[in-house]
């Protein structure tokens, strides 16, 4: 998979968490992912289709991190992953994908975005919308981990 295609998603996630939640995430080393199991507690998944490619991106948050983001963004912490937390994950997924879409359009890539799906619970799975390789990048914070997965065909 083309690094030029992956980096806008990573940059967009860092931008969203920094500007919207005043929270700095530290990216780790990208890896190839071979299973469908999420590494955290709640995930947002966004499908994307364009003339040059199709695929999907997911962001998975550990419970402690998403609750801290909710506290910083909305001033609320329900203590558990509930409907409001799931809504926030969907909105964060929208923001990250929108930011990446803007950066990619500057490089000539255009695509349409679907409505994000949110899945939560221990051991939940993520089904990407493409047959390409899945790249996963971990992001560390004092409150827990986030993981971004990117899977595209022909990118």
How does this structure look, described?
Helix content is 35%, strand content 29%. It has helices at residues 3-21, 63-74, 83-105, and strands at residues 26-27, 31-33, 42-49, 54-61, 112-113, 117-120, 134-141, 144-153. The protein is globular and about 40 Å long. It starts with a helix and ends with a strand. The model has no long low-confidence stretch (mean pLDDT 92).
Layout of strands and helices, then pairs:
Elements: H1 3-21, E1 26-27, E2 31-33, E3 42-49, E4 54-61, H2 63-74, H3 83-105, E5 112-113, E6 117-120, E7 134-141, E8 144-153
Antiparallel strand pairs: 1-7, 2-7, 3-4, 3-5, 3-6, 4-8, 7-8
Helix pairs in contact: 1-3
Order of helices and strands: HEEEEHHEEEE
Number of strands: 8
Coarse structural class = alpha+beta
> So how many helices?
3
State the shape.
globular
Summarize the main sheet.
Answer: 8 strands, antiparallel
